[in-house]
Specification:
31% of the residues lie in helices and 22% in strands. It has twelve helices and 20 strands.
């Protein structure tokens, strides 16, 4: 991968390593200037910093000579190396180092924004978009980075494969562009794969939100415990966020209804708030009503009760709406009624329980249900919408 450097010209290695929070095992960065990053030697442009990483089928360290020949100004890797004609910095973990180097290259944009991170197995994209709409309703200059797209003002950018967080350099580039555009807040969707690969370590989160954690993606993480631990890194990172001039609440927003609650409530440092249908939740949903046209409920906290209406359908979207409202109200100080207006303003997300209306005499819905749990709740939701047949067609 080649990192696009459209918001800066060049930075010295001394500058970016001067802010590096991890251990450097060997090498002297000097005053070498770099103009971009590349993790694929075939994409090297003169002046790039080549970051060599071990992959599943190849080792980037084997391609360092070719990267230098193509014009790499310097190299970072986690293996001992000598005899290169350019500076070589040995670190403990190249992949982890990359996110901090990219952050420094772009001027650490996460420190200039209020950053709200959302993680979970299902519902992340919907919750992120709900939060984004709430911020807009509150008059906040906000951006969005999800697995679907990045929204920077009026510009909407596709972020890739729709299943994982963008690579660390892309995330930092998006954040830098938001700072340059005068935005003050960003909602960032974070996946377990993204956390396991350190892609968002340098984002400086202020609020962390979890939707749910089910027994999925075990092929990537090996066990449910490892999967949950990857998700938990969002909340652990709150403690490491540097103080910001605009303040940073470092608030963990947890799902009281989910099996992950007890573990995350022990792991998450600092202030916490929970949401859910459970009567023990700090912010609850009461008087819930479902219909084919959407959901209606009252969001109830110790100091407020506001009606919430959304064209989204299903019990799981009650949970998503509560998660967004709780983060906005308790984490960002937004008025509950304004939060409810923001939720009502979101009409839907492409591929998330999206209705297709072409004049047909039946209801057609498209949903990006890419986990067994997501498929189950999607079918349960449409089952409540009709007394007639429910037909499921899967596309791979």
């Amino acid at each position: 991968m080649k990192m696009n450097t459209d918001t800066t010209n060049s930075v010295t290695l001394t500058t970016i390593f001067g802010q590096f929070p991890l251990k450097v095992l060997a090498g002297d960065p000097g005053d070498t200037r770099i103009t971009g990053f590349a993790m694929d030697n075939r994409l090297i442009q003169p002046g790039d910093l080549f970051v060599a990483m071990k992959g599943g089928s190849a080792d980037g360290h084997d391609f360092i000579p070719d990267a230098v020949q193509r014009g790499a100004a310097a190299v970072v890797g986690d293996k001992a190396m000598s005899g290169l004609s350019v500076p070589y910095m040995q670190v403990e973990n190249s992949r982890q180092a990359l996110t901090w180097l990219a952050g420094a290259f772009y001027g650490n944009p996460g420190r200039k924004l209020t950053v709200i991170g959302v993680t979970g197995t299902d519902g992340k994209t919907t919750t992120c978009n709900l939060l984004y709409q709430i911020l807009l309703a509150a008059g906040v200059k906000a951006g969005l980075i999800s697995t679907v797209n990045a929204v920077i003002g009026d510009e909407v950018l596709d972020t890739g494969f729709h299943v994982t967080t963008p690579d660390a350099p892309d995330v930092q580039r998006y954040l830098a562009r938001m700072v340059a555009a005068g935005l003050t807040h960003v909602v960032l969707e974070t996946t377990s794969h993204g956390w396991a690969q350190y892609r968002v370590d340098a984002c400086e989160f202020d609020v962390g939100v979890v939707t749910n954690i089910t027994h999925e993606h075990l092929d990537q993480h090996g066990s449910y415990e490892n999967y949950r631990a990857a998700k938990a890194r969002l909340f652990q990172s709150l403690e490491k966020t540097l103080s910001k001039p605009q303040g940073n609440p470092r608030l963990s927003v947890l799902n009281r209804d989910d099996s992950s609650y007890e573990t995350l409530s022990r792991i998450a440092p600092g202030p916490q708030v929970c949401y859910g249908l459970d009567v023990a939740a700090d912010i609850q949903a009461g008087s819930v009503k479902y219909s084919p046209q959407g959901i209606h409920f009252d969001a109830v906290g110790p100091d407020f009760r506001v009606p919430v209406t959304s064209p989204l359908v299903g019990e799981y979207n009650v949970s998503n709406c509560l998660a967004a409202l709780t983060a906005a109200v308790r984490g960002l100080g937004i008025d509950p009624e304004i939060a409810a207006h923001g939720i009502a303003a979101m009409t839907g997300i492409p591929g998330r329980m999206e209705r297709i209306e072409l004049g047909q005499p039946f209801t057609a819905i498209v949903d990006f249900a890419h986990t067994p749990n997501a498929l189950r709740v999607a079918i349960e939701t449409v089952r409540r919408m009709t007394e007639k047949r429910v037909i499921v067609k899967s596309e791979k």
